[in-house]
Amino acid sequence: MLKTAKETVASYRRSSPDYTPAQEGASDETKPLSESETEDFGPVPLQNTDNRRAGPTVPRLGDLDHRNELREEDRARERSDYIDDIRYERKVDRKAQKERLEEYMPRADPGSRERQLEKKRETTSTLKDFRDAKEGGDAEMAEADVMGDDGIEVYKRKKMETERKKTEREIRKEEVFRAKAAEREERLAERRAKEASTMEYFQKLAKERFG
């Protein structure tokens, strides 16, 4: 029985193909490259020629002016939106009051003199509202009249607004001072670098002449 098993294994080996050369060739092809062979492959690493320190930089005066302009534009847009909202609310309120008034006081019969007088009053009121809106009457109203605040709340709000503006002015002054100091240091560094380059040139020239 052992002999039969050995013969069976031998027959399987004879009938199966031999992959040994191909595997050896594949192993030669997939052999890792040496360090000298891999030097010519891949992108060339960039050299860091910037010796400046990384980190936040001090904004320049131009940057501060641009930022202040953007803030002013935002505030102007907010004021315009606020005025438009007040005008719209007043228009809606007038329309609601007119509808309630018509419910309690029905209109006169069509074609009658009373109805003609009502149309005339409505036309006059519409023209007056249009003229007031065009002249900016709503924008000239005091904030207390619009919001219904009392004198104490208005005083507190104005005081807080004054303190906020004062703080913003101090912050802007400090930022301008820092920007000017940074520009002054930059000019000083450029001058020093130029002087060092000039001295190096004269030293090299003297060494060539006098040894």
Summarize the SSE layout with pairings:
Blueprint: H1 2-15, H2 20-29, H3 61-104, H4 113-134, H5 143-147, H6 151-210
Oligomer: single chain
Round the Cα radius of gyration to an integer and report it: 44 Å
Q: Helix amount, in percent?
A: over 70%
User: Structural class, judged by helices and strands?
Assistant: mainly alpha
N-end to C-end Cα span? 101 Å
Unreliable residue stretches = 21-29
**Largest sheet report:** none
Number of E-type strands? 0
Q: Quick one: overall form?
A: elongated
Order of helices and strands: HHHHHH
Helix count equals 6
Mean pLDDT: 70
Strand content: under 5%
Q: What does this 3D model show about the protein?
A:
The structure is a single chain. This protein is mainly α and 211 residues long. It has a domain at 150-211. Helices cover 73% and strands 0% of the residues. The chain is built from six helices and no strands. It is elongated. The protein starts with a helix and ends with a helix. Residues 21-29 have low confidence and may be disordered.
